[in-house]
Specification:
4 helices; mainly alpha; 57% helix
Length: 84
């Protein structure tokens, strides 16, 4: 049985995600992570493996904007844990 998701995207992270989605220079990975974070702002959705992978790439990218990293961190926080 999966654990209940207790995290949701904060207003600050949602604003950062919206900024990334509007940025024409943002990478595909940044936009994927931002979309995942924004989707979770008012729902019980969790981050998919694809979105988590994209978010991890954004976090490792030294050229990623602060907004992109904020959205990526939010998406990673909301990914489901590993089964034991």
């Amino acid at each position: 049985m999966a654990a209940k998701k207790s995290e949701s995207t904060s207003g600050k992270a949602a604003a950062a995600a919206a900024k990334v989605l509007k940025d024409p220079k943002a990478s595909k990975d940044a936009k994927t992570a931002a979309a995942s974070a924004l989707t979770q702002s008012k729902s019980k959705e969790v981050t998919s493996a694809k979105a988590a992978s994209a978010a991890a790439k954004v976090m490792r990218d030294p050229k990623a904007s602060k907004s992109a990293k904020t959205a990526a961190a939010s998406a990673l926080t909301q990914k489901p844990g590993k089964k034991k």
